[in-house]
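Quick illustration, no need to memorize.
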Amino acid sequence: MPKLSHVCLIASLAVPTMAMPTFAADAPKEGAMSQHSVAADPYQWLENVTDDKALTWVKAANAKTEAELASTPEFKQLESDIRAILDSDAKIPGVEKIGDDYYNFWKDGTHERGLWRRTTLDEYRKPQPQWETVIDLDALNKIEGENWVWHGADCLKPGYERCLVALSRGGADADVTREFDLKNKQWLKDGFFRKEAKGALQWIDQDNVYVFTDFGDGSMTESGYPRIVKQWRRGTPLESATVVYEGKADDMYIAATRDHSPGFERDFVSRTIAFYNDELYLRGKDGQLIKVDAPNSANKSVHHEWLALQLREPWTVGGKTHPAGALLVTKFDDFMAGKRDFDVVSKPTDTQSLDEFVWTKSHLVVNELHDVKNRVFVLKPTPDGWQGQPLPNMPAVDSVSIAAVDSDDSDAIWLTSTDYLLPTTLSYVQLGEVPEKLKSNPAFFDASKHVSEQHFATSQDGTRIPYFLVRPKDMKHDGNNPTLLYGYGGFEISMTPGYSGGVGKGWLEKGGVYAVANIRGGGEYGPRWHQAALKANRHKAYEDFAAVAQDLVARKITSPKYLGIQGGSNGGLLVGNMLTRYPQQFGAVVVQVPLLDMQRYHKLLAGASWMAEYGDPDKPEEWKFIQTFSPYHLVNKDATYPPTIFMTSTRDDRVHPGHARKMMARMQEYGDDVRYYENIEGGHGGAANNAQQAHMNALAYTFLWQQLK
């Protein structure tokens, strides 16, 4: 059973970039703010997402940007090249085992919205598998006159005859859930249906589901997520569903699910109070809830007889103190009976942290990061505790990820391996046997002229900051190389190496240098790395990014006028701070689906759910430090800023497009070199199909190359 965390992180846009080092003298003094911190906001009207006046402003800004960037033959060729990569039939079709078949969701040039299709494992092993279409989303959109975007399917064990399919209009987080007959491949006319909202349905059995959604006034949290979970019986109106659990208005997300593992069927309710602060309850047959009495900060997961706790804070229990970042395992029933004996199956060090773990039928597979490079270990319970060894025959790459093929019935895993210059490969690994390489992506760009390296910079407080660098083999260390630096630095998300055809085609093949900074706020070294840049310490993430930029300059790889930076979501807040705090250090800035107005972020869409990360602006003592990293309030009409482009989506219902709109309007008022593009669809990912994604990427790379070449 997966971890019971139904909340969506602020996702980063996985586009490579490079940032330049900054000096302490470049940063604003503590508490230094522009006049905007107290003045009325003249651009608040741009927060009205679909208001005619606001959309007229958006369309005018889009047209100006299109005229500047998208009118040349070079742009059209790049857009076409990136679209061909996204549409390629040679890409790995990732699969999920559902019953005896293997399902894949696929988008290409012919199927812009996508196909949900299936095949067998034997067929999947072939270079060109035969697929059976289950749902054609483009055909459905044509019939219904909609713009549905796929959000996934949950199919009921053990028969897998019925599925709950989530569909989003235009890619927003809010979606609908519809019941689908998997056997006959048709929608059930009178099946379960959840109207458009943030939330979900989860199977209990064929005639009952858990439903957490918008039930009307007061049923959603201040973050805009479900506050109430109910049990709903087939054939009855939703209004008659019985309440299972009610959270508080200032909670983040309330949900419930059933673990359908044969012999271990259990029901759970999760109460997410804030990021990395949640409670898990076992629901008895009588409906009573019993708390799984582990720390709120720990990630909790249950598989068969086992309970796993991934600690985010030190925990003293059973006479022992376990460090933050440790992975503990014990028998679930023993734990619920009061026993507190654990096996420590992964323990952090100064250079090592837990990246992920998966259960198979009889093993626990642990994936660790050692200085941001993956190593996988296979463990099995014995009378003397859990014993393990490294996964043999590992591919010679820096980055791998793992997933169980079927955690109930199989000891096989999917192993995905990748690197900045090595196309992604998918292997089927039956534990104890030699990995079977099944699929590889084609080479979408010529990587033979480049080399990938890892370096370390020193941040302002002396902390060692790793970063990856991809450069031409014959690069001259003369400081004149166009360089793109990417970062994220939030929500314990790690930036590990990965192959990107778009980055290769749009940047590396042109001769550009690409770097990724593993700054604090992320998860590269576990919880301590994340917690080091929370709230009042947020500035450390920006100092880290600046240090990497400084290191790039010190190594004579680049110089400020040739250094561009890019980031999305929380990474948009990062580069927004680089723009306003260290403007002289960069030659171009790409800001995507960003947070920028940190005085109002908690009042916009899902913003309230991120206060554990940034703080509460309504508390004067917290606004005192928040204002020091609020780009919308830091921008100064007397400063000179590097050329910048803001990119967002009208349909982003996670990070409000008003952030980017208002920042653009303010800087435009001051006469800064700024441009803007807002995709009408796309949700928080920025694009709803490959054509839109190619267009957005081509705009970003064209802008960067024009400014930095």
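The first helix runs from residue 52 to 69.
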